[in-house]
Amino acid sequence: MKSSTLKVLALLLVLGMVAAACSKKPDEGGGKEGGTITIGQDKANNHGSEDVSGNDEFKVEIDDFYFEPTVLKGTAGQKVKLELDNEGSALHNFSLPEQNLDQEQDLISDAIARGAHAVQLYSEDNQGGVGCVQCHGPTLQGSLIPNTQTPDDPYDVQPTPNLTTVCGGPFTGHPLIYGLDDIYTTIEQGRGLMPSWSIRFAGALGDQQINDIVNYIVSIQDKDEVKFSENVCTNPEAVTKAIDQFLDGDPTKKPNPTTNIQF
Ligand code: HEC
Fold first, then answer.
1. pLDDT in tens, 44-61
2. Which CATH number covers residue 202?
3. 214: Cβ below 6 Å to ligand 1?
């Protein structure tokens, strides 16, 4: 994730909260905006400080070689949700060493990489491949497959869902999906022409392998189609919104994700 030209720094807040910044050519400077700032032993391009005491959310703008604001100050023990908006083209890293967030991020990246291989076809070079692409298309954006339930009719073809919009749930045409669990369950148990993949059912994949694939699917969501406000995989508020909008606010009306439906 980390580009070699970037230096990633962690800035410790009063207690617990940390933001990270990148600096390219550090020169000496004061604490005012502009120039560089030294936090602990690290230098960063200085794009100001912000007091986030009392905020429960805060948006940090990321651009090439800086975070703006560069320093966040808050109250001890305060919880704040940071939204990181990368407007630059450089890769950025974000770490909370005190909270092992860096490590968690590495684990997720590894899982995504394994999932990316798993969805591809099996081959000598890709022995973990199970071939979701066979039915969902080479980029998992959906395809057409023969209906194996009507073998006498070779013209009967069925569409397969676009997995790059599945996290939009009912907002993007996936009426049985209200969160990660529903994606997991569908892969695990199958649905209609979609086979079961879990060793707990009729498949060959273990829980970890299915988890990897789910992480990968979350990572390939089409950002234009699946807005954060409607992403039922990553945003709990989107789940509430979906239940309000599509199930009259009644979570008990949530459909079983393995129920066969007609597209
Ligand atoms: C034999 C073809 C086939 C293969 C192989 C296949 N799928 Fe599917 N998949 C389908 C079909 C058809 C559906 C739609 C089922 C329905 O709703 O009736 C589906 C549905 C899904 C859904 C639910 C999407 C939604 O909109 O609700 C997910 C998630 C999914 N597949 C993931 C996978 C993954 C991951 C793999 C590989 C491990 C995979 N599929 C392999 C045919 C396939």
1. 889 999 999 999 999 999
2. 1.10.760.10
3. no
Residues 127 and 247 in one domain: yes
Closest CA to 60 of 26, 89, 36, 87: 87
Query: Are 87 and 120 found together in one domain?
Result: no
Asked whether residue 68 falls in the same domain as residue 162, the answer is: no
Q: Which domain holds residue 201?
A: 108-253
C-alpha torsion angle, residues 36, 4, 223, 211 (rounded to 10)? -120
Whole-angstrom CA distances from 47 to 68, 91, 199 are: 5, 18, 52
Q: Are residue 137 and residue 197 in the same domain, yes or no?
A: yes
Nearest CA to ligand 1 atom 34: 132
CA of 117 to the centre of ligand 1 (A): 17
Q: Is the pLDDT of residue 93 over 80?
A: no
Q: Which residue has the higher pLDDT, 98 or 61?
A: 61
Is the shortest distance between the CB of 233 and ligand 1 below 6 Å? no
- Higher pLDDT among residues 40 and 165, named by residue: 165
1 found inside a domain: no
**Top-ranked range on mean pLDDT: pick from 47-51, 64-68, 115-119:** 115-119
208: in domain: yes
Share of the chain above pLDDT 70, in %: 85
- Backbone region of residue 134 per phi and psi (left: phi > 0; alpha: psi in -120 to 50; beta: other values): alpha
Report if residue 258 sits inside a domain: no
Nearest to 178, CA basis, from 249, 119, 108: 249
